[in-house]
Amino acid sequence: MHVNKTKKIAILGVFAALSTVFTVLGTVISVNTVFFTALAAYLLGIIVVRFGIKEGILFYFVCAALDFFVNPNKMHVILYLALAAYILLSEGIFLLMQKKNLKEWAHCVIRLVIFLLIYVPMIFFFPKLLFGDAMQKMAAFYPLLIPAGVIGLLVYDVAYRVFKRIFYERFHTII
Asked: What is the per-residue pLDDT across 36-88, written as a single tens digit (0 to 9) for each?
């Protein structure tokens, strides 16, 4: 029993460090900010699926604290918190829905609502983070960003599902 707890703690620590490295890389290599931050958030999904929602919540807060202290650009920490919150809520609700045998389409609708609850405030409060300096001056185009964000959500979701599948195919014996 202690070996399993030790292994779980070690995996959580390594994944937290890796997640922090990805978010810092997103800051250093500025053209890939969203890519590296999304990759860091995907690691949270692996933790939730493998160990459960409690460990996922703990991982979320540990990574947030690490990112806050290590990452020089605090705006990227906010982006990580948003992307990881989406994954955490999505996987947590999926685990609840599995117990109740609910349909997949309901999970898709819930994921869309979660995304919109996170994305729409980010458009208005942190436009520079998502779109750079140019979009800050174009407030009239903000409503058009919602459909574009939904398309981005589809890409993000598909990429996450592919990442999760490939990760488990390659590393299922390790974790």
From this structure: 888 999 999 999 988 889 999 999 999 999 999 998 888 888 888 988 999 99
pLDDT digits 0-9 by tens, 132-161: 666 656 667 777 778 888 888 888 888 888
Backbone torsion region of residue 93, taken as left when φ is above 0, otherwise alpha when ψ lies between -120 and 50, otherwise beta: alpha
| Strands annotated E in 15-123 | none
CA–CA separation, 92 and 89 (whole Å): 5
Q: pLDDT tens-digit profile of 79-135? A: 889 889 999 998 888 888 877 777 777 878 888 888 888 888 877 777 766 666 666
Amino acid at 28: V
Percent of the chain with pLDDT over 90: 22
**Sequence-separated (6 or more) residues with CB below 8 Å from residue 24:** 67, 70, 71, 72
Q: What is the dihedral of CA 131, 161, 25, 14, to 10 degrees?
A: 150
- Determine phi and psi for 74, rounding to 5 degrees: -70, -20
Q: What is the DSSP letter of 72?
A: S
Q: The tokens of 70 are what?
A: 């290590």
d(C-alpha 53, C-alpha 58), whole Å: 9
